[in-house]
Design a protein that fits this description.
The complex is a heterodimer of chains A (132) and B (186). With 132 residues, chain A is an alpha+beta fold. Chain A has two helices and eight strands; from the N terminus they run H-E-E-E-E-E-E-E-E-H. In chain A, the strands form two sheets. Chain A has a four-stranded antiparallel β-sheet with strand order 2-1-8-7, with no helix packed on it. A four-stranded antiparallel β-sheet of chain A has the order 3-4-5-6, with no helix packed on it. Chain A is globular and about 55 Å long. Chain B has one domain: Arp2/3 complex 21 kDa subunit ARPC3. Helices cover 74% and strands 0% of the residues of chain B. The mean pLDDT of chain B is 86. Classes of the chains: A alpha+beta (132), B mainly alpha (186). Chains A and B meet through helix 1 of A and helix 5 and helix 6 of B. Chain B: It holds the Pfam family Hpre_diP_synt_I.
């Protein structure tokens, strides 16, 4: 390891933390905001709107079938949503786990399936300002 | 003598071709092995980046265009074998991002940055490239949420990959096939 390495690694870590820390702070406040109402999961397949589901505490399974016959299985429970099964080759979508916060996403790249959690008032996720 | 110059020239070129072919084959196998290793971290898209060992080793011994040929071969073959051709764009953009950054760092950082630093930045660039492809397809910048945790993880895996490359480079430098390509100083 050289000095340059340490500097490079330091820059990467600082940059990563600079994005992560405000996210943690924001999340707490946005959770309080939406105590009364349920969030909505917007499901998009291949860029087109597929379905919007209200995230209630009632269990509900949603099966998405893509045009070429593949599927993704989503499960709504406890005011959140989770990808529980898919026949995509990499299974990355399953590693997203249970998501329940405004702005959270689940992505299945091979099937081009995108699940975004939004607030029912149409308010955007917290971090959009940082990126765009 | 010009004729013997030609001979060594074409023999060098042949050796280079052989090296690229072997490296591509190893990179593809590493990519497949990697897909069987589950990572215990809940960060979507996290990978060990084992194939990067070969890309970095190739950058060390050969020129940028040779390493570029390697990443093209590696991405196309791995996508075909693993059957995730739909995700080809993602791995391709990741590989190109990573290549450009590592190649640039090798040029400007020679002597100041070791293979470990280059490996770390290459890994992070790979993630950034993949997420950029995802953002292009899904048209939502929210996917960049996953970049910071991937960056932190990329530092950890990048350090290990860099150490691995150091050993690979040391071992290969002793092989006669690689002798003509050992850089004078690094």
């Amino acid at each position: 390891m050289k000095r340059g390495d340490i500097i490079l690694i330091g820059v990467v870590i600082v940059a990563a933390l600079a994005f992560m820390v405000p996210k943690w702070l924001f999340q707490n406040s946005s959770e309080n905001l939406h105590n009364g109402e349920n969030l909505v999961a917007v499901i998009t397949v291949n860029g087109e709107h597929y379905k919007s589901v209200e995230l209630t505490d009632k269990e509900q399974e949603i099966k998405i079938t893509t045009a070429d016959g593949h599927y993704n299985l989503l499960k709504v429970h406890d005011h959140g949503i989770e990808m529980i099964d898919a026949d995509c080759p990499d299974k990355v979508c399953l590693t997203f786990g249970f998501v329940n916060r405004n702005g959270d996403t689940i992505v299945c790249l091979p099937h081009r399936v995108l699940v975004e959690i939004v607030s029912p008032t149409g308010e955007e996720g917290d971090l959009d300002a940082v990126v765009g | 003598m010009p004729s013997s110059d030609n001979l060594t020239d074409s023999s060098l070129r042949l050796k280079k071709t052989v090296i690229i072919a072997i490296f591509s084959a190893v990179a593809v196998v590493l990519g497949i092995i990697e897909s069987f290793i589950p990572l215990p971290f809940a960060v979507p898209g996290a990978k060990l980046g084992l194939a990067n060992v070969m890309v970095l080793t190739c950058l060390y011994f050969l020129r940028g265009r040779d390493a570029f040929a390697l990443i093209i071969l590696k991405t196309v073959i791995t996508s075909l074998i693993l059957g995730t051709f739909s995700a080809f764009l993602f791995s391709f953009l990741g590989a190109v991002f990573s290549f450009v950054v590592m190649y640039g760092l090798m040029k400007i950082g020679r002597g100041r940055i070791s293979l470990i630093g280059i490996s770390v930045v290459g890994g992070v660039a790979h993630n950034a490239g993949q997420l950029t492809a995802a953002v292009m397809v899904f048209k939502t910048s929210k996917i960049f949420y996953y970049l910071p945790p991937l960056m932190l993880l990329g530092v950890v895996t990048g350090v290990f990959i860099g150490i691995a490359v150091k050993y690979v480079v040391q071992a290969l430098s002793k092989q006669s096939l690689f002798e003509p390509f050992v850089p004078e100083t690094y």
